[in-house]
């Protein structure tokens, strides 16, 4: 072999070594899972690009179209924050309940958003925002974007222009795409059902809760929502509920109240001699985390209800935060004065009370007005918990009715007192009473129908054992000592077995 051939072979060998060495160096920098993500990322980018072209989306051509894009992104972000509130509800309710029911509470809060997504798509959105009359929407079912956003008469601005000597019509979108409007409203619909979850916790059958959630999201919630937010008869009267103190929170609260009353209290909550036994939650850490998640999520709930990225958004965010802070402070002070110690559960509910209270009027009151509304809500919620628990003897493990129902009513009425835009207290009162009456009647029908058919309450033995085992066949804290072990004597035997194996 000639020297020239040898030099060529060596050069090829060196090139192969360089390529292999480079691949080896890259391989050493990343784990096998990260390397597997490289082709997956390329595939996602390719599909994403193809999808964007298939939908025919182009770059905004003027400031007006750019605003539509920004408004759409704004609603996407705020809607996502509202969806994330489901995590807050899950943590809050789980922490306030006993450990033997943790899986059940988590499962309800997770599945309810999935149910809401399908039911609101199929039925709820049409009843709420479809074209119809002042009482109910009558089209737009199985949402496909056919009806215009928020029932506006026109979503496009039509102008005529000359192109190559020919007159053509040019349509410019003046409203955000209805798909993002649907997503934002869906997040609110799911919230109403999660409110019910907490009030009926620790003794309701899982299947009964799922069926009730379908009925609430598919029928009750959208009908009253149509009255308030889609130009229905209440809206035509001048009723004002900017972000849902009544439309979302009171509706969920009324449904929760009737569910808790019809379902009955938990085992051991009340005795025949009238004694009320406190049943403390098992994990105040995650309950506090849930409160903070909800506080953050409310910055999507209230500012997002502006439905556009306007200069009002920061104002709404600040009124929301001031009310929450005031509610937390006054609830702390009230529980401290009433019970002798600052109760963390009341601090949590005080913050949430302030948030619920300001939701109706966050765009219509002054900063000082927001503080007063939140402060009063924080006081109300402390006494409301005792009223439901001891006077009415309605067992609500997380205080959902006190926070969402009572403070939702207060916040709606407060618009008629503190609004700077001249809203009538009488009109607000009419709205509270009619929405409340309708929801109470309809939800009671739902609960009694379920009670008479599938049943709504687990057996006493299942309740004592815990819904995690009886309803789901699993535990949230496998291996930890449970209340059921102590009640059945299992804990004592376990301790005895362990003690017998210890050398003294």
Question: Main attributes?
Answer:
504 residues; mainly alpha; two-stranded antiparallel sheet; 18 helices
Kindly summarize this structure in a few lines.
The protein has 504 residues and is mainly α.
Description:
69% of the residues lie in helices and 3% in strands. The protein is built from 18 helices and two strands. It has a two-stranded antiparallel ribbon with strand order 1-2. β1 (156-163) and β2 form a beta hairpin. α3 (63-96) packs antiparallel against α9, α4 runs parallel beside α6 (206-229) and α5 (178-199) packs parallel to α8 (245-263). The radius of gyration is 28 Å and the shape is globular. The model is unreliable at 50-57, 146-153 and 490-504 (pLDDT under 50).
**Major sheet, described briefly?**
2 strands, antiparallel
Low-confidence stretches: 50-57, 146-153, 490-504
How much beta, percentage-wise? under 5%
- Write down the overall geometry: globular
The pLDDT mean sits at: 86
**Percentage of helical residues?**
55-70%
Q: Please provide the count of β strands.
A: 2
SSE-based structural type: mainly alpha
Q: What is Rg?
A: 28 Å
Please list the strands of the largest sheet in the order they lie side by side.
1-2
Succession of helices and strands: HHHHEEHHHHHHHHHHHHHH
Please give the count of helices. 18
From the N-terminal CA to the C-terminal CA, the straight-line distance is 86 Å
Topology:
Blueprint: H1 3-29, H2 32-55, H3 63-96, H4 102-129, E1 156-163, E2 166-173, H5 178-199, H6 206-229, H7 233-237, H8 245-263, H9 284-304, H10 312-339, H11 344-359, H12 367-391, H13 400-418, H14 425-452, H15 460-465, H16 467-472, H17 483-488, H18 490-500
Helix pairs in contact: 3-4, 3-5, 3-9, 4-5, 4-6, 5-6, 5-8, 6-8, 6-14, 8-13, 8-14, 9-10, 9-11, 10-11, 10-12, 11-12, 11-13, 12-13, 13-14
């Amino acid at each position: 072999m000639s020297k020239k051939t040898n030099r060529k072979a060596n050069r090829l060998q060196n090139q192969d070594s360089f390529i292999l060495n480079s691949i080896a160096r890259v391989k050493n920098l990343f784990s096998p899972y990260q390397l597997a993500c490289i082709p997956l990322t390329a595939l996602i980018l390719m599909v994403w690009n193809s999808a964007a072209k298939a939908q025919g989306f182009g770059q905004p051509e003027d400031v007006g179209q750019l605003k539509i894009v920004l408004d759409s992104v704004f609603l996407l972000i705020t809607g996502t924050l509202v969806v994330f509130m489901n995590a807050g509800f899950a943590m809050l309710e789980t922490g306030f309940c006993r450990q033997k029911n943790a899986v059940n509470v988590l499962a309800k809060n997770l599945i309810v958003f999935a149910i809401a997504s399908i039911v609101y798509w199929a039925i709820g959105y049409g009843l709420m925002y479809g074209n119809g009359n002042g009482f109910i929407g009558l089209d737009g079912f199985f949402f496909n974007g056919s009806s215009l956003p928020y029932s506006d008469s026109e979503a496009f601005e039509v102008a005529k222009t000359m192109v190559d000597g020919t007159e053509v019509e040019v349509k410019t979108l003046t409203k955000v795409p209805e798909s993002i409007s649907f997503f934002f409203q869906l997040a609110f619909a799911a919230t109403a059902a999660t409110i019910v979850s907490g009030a009926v916790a620790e003794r309701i059958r899982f299947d009964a809760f799922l069926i009730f959630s379908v009925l609430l999201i598919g029928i009750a919630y959208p009908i009253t929502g149509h009255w308030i937010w889609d130009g229905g008869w209440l809206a035509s009267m001048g009723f004002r509920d900017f972000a849902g103190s009544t439309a979302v929170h009171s509706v969920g609260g009324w449904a929760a109240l009737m569910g808790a009353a019809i379902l009955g209290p938990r085992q051991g909550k009340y005795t025949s001699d009238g004694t009320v036994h406190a049943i403390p939650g098992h994990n105040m850490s995650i309950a506090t985390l849930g409160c903070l998640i909800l506080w953050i999520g409310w910055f999507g709930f209230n500012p997002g209800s502006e439905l556009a990225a306007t200069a009002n958004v920061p104002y709404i965010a600040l009124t929301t935060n001031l009310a929450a802070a005031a509610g937390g402070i006054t609830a702390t002070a009230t529980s401290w004065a009433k019970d002798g110690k600052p109760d963390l559960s009341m601090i949590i509910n005080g913050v949430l009370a302030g948030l619920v209270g300001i939701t109706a009027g966050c765009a219509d009151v002054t900063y000082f007005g927001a503080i007063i509304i939140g402060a009063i809500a924080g006081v109300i919620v402390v006494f409301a918990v005792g009223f439901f628990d001891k006077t009415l003897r309605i067992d609500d493990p997380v205080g959902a009715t006190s926070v969402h129902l009572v403070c939702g009513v207060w916040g709606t009425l407060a618009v008629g007192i503190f609004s700077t835009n001249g809203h009538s207290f009488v009109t607000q009162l009419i709205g509270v009473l009619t929405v409340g009456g309708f929801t109470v009647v309809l939800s009671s029908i739902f609960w009694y129908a379920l009670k008479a058919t599938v049943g709504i309450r687990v057996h006493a033995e299942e309740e004592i054992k815990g819904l995690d085992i009886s309803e789901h066949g699993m535990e949230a804290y496998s291996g930890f000592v449970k209340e059921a072990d102590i009640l059945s004597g299992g804990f004592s035997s376990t301790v005895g077995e362990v003690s017998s194996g210890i050398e003294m």
